[in-house]
Every structure is written in structure tokens, then in C-alpha cells.
Amino acid sequence: MKLDDLTHRSAVWLDGTGPESGIVLSSRVRLARNLNDVPFTNRSSGEEQQKVLEQFRQATQEAGILRRGALLQIDHLSMLDRAFLQERHLISPTMMKMDLNSGLYLDEREMVSAMINEEDHLRLQVMQSGLRIQSTWEIIDRIDDQFSDHVRFAFSEQYGYLTACPTNVGTGMRASVLIHLPALVLTKDIDQVIKGISQVGLAVRGFYGEGTDVLGNLFQVSNQATLGRTETDIVDNVQRFTNQIIDFERQARQTLFSEARHQIEDKIWRAYGLLQNARVLSSQELMSLLSAVRLGVSMEIITSVSLATLNSLMILMQPAHLQKLFRREMDADERDVRRAELVREKMRTLALEDGSQRAT
Amino acid sequence: MKLDDLTHRSAVWLDGTGPESGIVLSSRVRLARNLNDVPFTNRSSGEEQQKVLEQFRQATQEAGILRRGALLQIDHLSMLDRAFLQERHLISPTMMKMDLNSGLYLDEREMVSAMINEEDHLRLQVMQSGLRIQSTWEIIDRIDDQFSDHVRFAFSEQYGYLTACPTNVGTGMRASVLIHLPALVLTKDIDQVIKGISQVGLAVRGFYGEGTDVLGNLFQVSNQATLGRTETDIVDNVQRFTNQIIDFERQARQTLFSEARHQIEDKIWRAYGLLQNARVLSSQELMSLLSAVRLGVSMEIITSVSLATLNSLMILMQPAHLQKLFRREMDADERDVRRAELVREKMRTLALEDGSQRAT
């Protein structure tokens, strides 16, 4: 697999399908695991790290895990390629900056991926489109079992899986959804909702995970605790509260549309018009325009754009993606012009494909 | 002629034709005249005012002036109708509020009009599209002569035509152009230009004339003095300095396009996208969006909209026009929604008529 092949397409977890896909972009489960006989990454030598990489390479081959995938050695990649992987939510901001013998396993469709020698030896993640926490959990659980047949994970009878950071000890599991809450942001109820979420043991993060900003009204909601509860508990909990947040968002949308329909439709259609016409477009503005159009698509006000298109624009128009696409470094000014150009092209194609609906 | 017939069309002086019509919307000449044997309007009785109206009615019939026109008695009109006429630049803000026996003559195409019993007994105006001060002057001069054959104007050998306000004494003439100067506004050179204009005896006014705001980067440039110079001097003067302002505007456009092409194109196309998509649109925002699109049309960046369309939107989407069109009073919120709807309709029709150019 070549990274350059990915510049034109986004991952399967962003294809806009699945339950509640109008509000929930994707579901993700990740497991933190460490090998029993090697110190944690931050304490291991370069040699030991290489050994970890090798063990997981063998395990994946023997077990037939990620057979159609690839292993990328991160420290061999340019900073641009690393940024590119981070933009695709495949490596963490932390990993981007590390200069260890770290690796990324990656299946072709980017449903399953695994960071090797990040904070933990193994950070396995599975992502799917829509609200599918349960099935995402089932997939990752099978892969975890397959790994367990070939490597020995550090495990304590008392605590469960051992991890570099105590917050991950136990199940080592984080289940999360990437959820779009524009109405709760507009009605300013979002603060209340976030407060409520924290009180029931869930955490809210930004677009790229821990410590990152909220962009385009997209929130990552995940379990906080990994210890003292079962994986099933965690899945049920995140699922239950996500359903509740979806309800709140739906109510907020109803309120907005009954009290300020014209203003909301105006916001949505203006964003649509700007995507189709702007000549200069920053990443940040794009995210905000996509958010408004996503609301419109989700409310069936705009019918000529698919959620998959919006999702792919969100990923493919990021700085490192654009530079990979054009195969050269570009400053922010040039990127903003190219971004506007590509977005316009995409939106125009769509408008021509379905001019009648556009004119609704 | 019924006012309701005018709600769907704009005047001939806004048809976007004529020299320099990309920058100069229209040329206008007006003459202030008073009858010899009646006190000025502000000193005349209702009976005398009625007599003035009657004299001009007779004169127009006898002389065949404005034959295909109509006389509207302003004080018989509702405030909405008066506002409607003001929005069309046919009566002054002053006249709108007067409750005298005042009248408006109006030819079918709105090229020639005459306010009776405004500040002066007669305020005759001729408006044409583009930069045509000379021919506009020739038209109004002929009409003035025809009037002179049938009524006696107050005239002093020493001063010339006598008027209620000393600033109009002499020729009683004001020649003006409505000129679009978006680039000079963007480069902030406009202040310098206005200063220069004042120094050569010209005045700069807003969209609706004296004491009104500049809207959509449209400026009215006219002669200041009416006394001590001939009509030909005034025409030549306004023509010459208008040419100079046009040059300045062209230079500013060149500068902008060589130094910030993407930003300017962005501004133009965003405005275009908003006109096509907004669901709520105030008069003021419309003027500002039309200004940006006008710049685009004038620079041949946008080729799917005509200047005539932009001009007509500028007039027909004003508050009183909308209320006349829908035949009822509407508050600002409702007008903003209807305005957006009508503008969209107009822009969509255009886009469908010429989809290929739109996609440029």
C-alpha cells in the first residue's frame, strides 16, 4: 500500500453509512496492550522497540490479521507523511512527534489500524461509519484474541491489562463516537450537555482526540474509565449516552427550526453557496461550512450532497493531504486557494449530477 | 400609468447600456425652475400650489411634453407609494415627507420626470444609462425650451434662473453621475479622490442624493455651483472629472488584481454564491453583494449576469417595492426572507439560462 494512493479517497469509516449517520460520523474502539517481556515504550531501548515491531509483524503474519494491510515504519516517514497519517486519524499527535522505532499497521480500507510503540506497545483501533459501537467492539475483540494467541500481553489478575499510563489500565479500552452537534452549539446547550456527560464518566474531546480543538461542531465522546468495569459495560454505557446526546441534538434542531427556521436555512444555504464559490478557503472555515451543510443534509434541506462527500472533503482538504496531492510543499495562502479550487470542483460535479434537486 | 405596473421592472436609465456602463450606472441632469408669478413653494398657499400644478399640466399637454407620461398628485398617495417613488429616484426624500399639493410627472420609461412643488415649482430631471451627460443635457434642454414657450419662469438678467435656495440660482442645473467605485473603496483611496473632487467644485453624495448614505460603493458625483458658469461648462466639467475618476477606479482595480487577485475573486464569487443561496437578505447586504458581483461582471470575471439584472435587483428589492409587489405591509424580517427568495429566483433563472458560463 502506498500512502499516495490514499490522497484521493477517504476511509471506509467515513462513508456516511450506518445507524444515525446524520449525527454520528463514526464509532471507534481502541485497545491499549503491552508485551509481557518488554519495558513500556518510554523505558525501552531502540533495540527493544525494534523487537516489539518484529513480534507484532510476525503475529500479524501468522495470525492472518491485517493480511491485506501494510506496516509502515513511522520513523522512516517524512514529517509530511506523518502529518498526513495524523489527518486521517491513523496516528496520534503524540506519535507524530516521536522518533522511536514505531510503526503503523493499516488495512486497505482503514477500518483496522494499529500503532506500535506509541505510548503503549500496541494501540489497536477499529473504526466504522455511523453508530456501531457494539459491532466495532466485536471486530476488535476478535483481533485482540488472535493477537493473544501469538504474543503474551502484560496482564495482571488484579488489574487487567497493564498500560504505560494508569488511566488505561484494566480493559485498556476506549470506545468513542465522533458526533456532530451543531444545534446544541447554536442553542448554547452544549456546555450543559458536556457537563452532564462528564458526570456519567464520559469524556469529550476535539476532532483529533485528546487535547485538540473542536472543529466543525464535531465532538469525540468516549468512556473515561477503563478499570473496574467490563468491556460490555463500557460499550453499553457509551451507546446509551450517545443515544441520549442524539436525542438532545434532535430536540435542539426541532427548537431551532420551529423558532428560527429562516435563519437556520439561511446559515445552511449560505455555507453551501460559499463552498461552491469561494476562491480562498482555510481548513478551519471549510470545517465550519461543512458543519452547516452537514446539518442541512441531515435535515434533508440539502439533498444534492451526500454525507460521504462531506466526510471526504473534511479529510482530503487538510494541509498535509493537499501537499501530498500536489506533491510539493505549499504555504497556507496557496493551500487556501487550491483547497477552494478542489472543493468547488467537487461541489460543481455534484450540482451538475443533480441540478434539479439543487434548485429546490 | 399605474404604479403597480412598475413593481416588476426597473427604469430605462438602469438598463446597463451606454458608455462606461461597467463603472457609471447612469447620468442625470436636473433643472430647478420657478414660475414668475407665484411665490416659492414654501411661501405659497395651497391654492397657489394647485395653480402651479395646473399650469404645468396644461403646459405639458399643449407642448406635447411627456405625452405618454402621467401626473401623479403626491399628496394623494399613501406613504408606501411615496416611498416606492423615492426608491426609484423619482421623488426626493424631502418631497416624500411634504404634504403640499405636489405632483410628479413621469414618462413611461422613467427617463424624464418632473417634481412639481418640491423645493422649487419645477424640478425637471432626465436620467440615462451609462456616461451620457452631454446627451442627457441636450434632452433636458429641449424640454426646458418647450416649457418656456408655455410658462414664464422666474429669471433675472443678472443672476439667471431664480430658485428657492441660493445654491441653485443661475443655471438651476445639476449634472450628476451615479458611479460605482468598489476598488477605490477597497484600496482606501476613495477619501483622497473625494477630497480632490471637492476641490474642483464637484460634490459627492450617497445613493439617494443629498444627505443620504453611500450604499454598495455607489457615489453620486455632481457639480456644486450653478451660478456664474454656463450649462455647457457644467456638463464639460462633470464629464471631464468623471473620466478622471473612472481612470482612478481602473487603476485601483489593476492594482488589486495584480496584488491580491485571489482575494478579490474570492470576494466576488462569494457574493455571487450568497445571492444564489441566502434565505435572509437585508437591503443593505444586498447592495453590498451586488456591488461585489458588479465588480466581477465589469471585470468579466462573472459573465452569466448582466449589469441590467444587477441594476434592477438594486431597485426592485427595496422595502417599498417588495411591499407593493406583495400588496401588503411586511416587517423587516419578512421582507428579508422574501427578498432572498426573489433574488434567488432571479439568479437561478440566470444560472439555468447559462449554466456553462456559470461553471467557469
Structural descriptors:
eight-stranded antiparallel beta sheet, alpha+beta, two-stranded antiparallel ribbon, disordered C terminus, homodimer, 360 residues, Creatine Kinase, Chain A, domain 2
The major sheet of chain A is characterized as:
8 strands, antiparallel
Number of helix segments of chain A? 13
**Largest beta sheet: strand ordering of chain A:** 2-3-4-5-1-8-10-9
The level 1 CATH classification of the largest domain in chain A is Alpha Beta
Classify the oligomer: homodimer
CATH homologous superfamily label of the largest domain in chain A = Glutamine synthetase/guanido kinase, catalytic domain
The CATH architecture name of the largest domain in chain A reads 2-Layer Sandwich
Summarize the helix and strand pattern of chain A as letters. EHEHHEEEHEEEHHEEHHHHHHH
Q: Count the strands of chain A?
A: 10
Given helix and strand content, the structural type of chain A is alpha+beta
- How much strand of chain A? 5-15%
Distance between the termini of chain A: 42 Å
Q: What is the C-alpha radius of gyration of chain A, as a whole number of Å?
A: 21 Å
- Arithmetic mean pLDDT of chain A: 91
CATH-derived topology of the largest domain in chain A = Creatine Kinase, Chain A, domain 2
* Largest interface summary: A-B, 21 and 22 residues
Based on CA inertia axes, which overall geometry of chain A fits?
Answer: globular
Helicity level of chain A: 40-55%
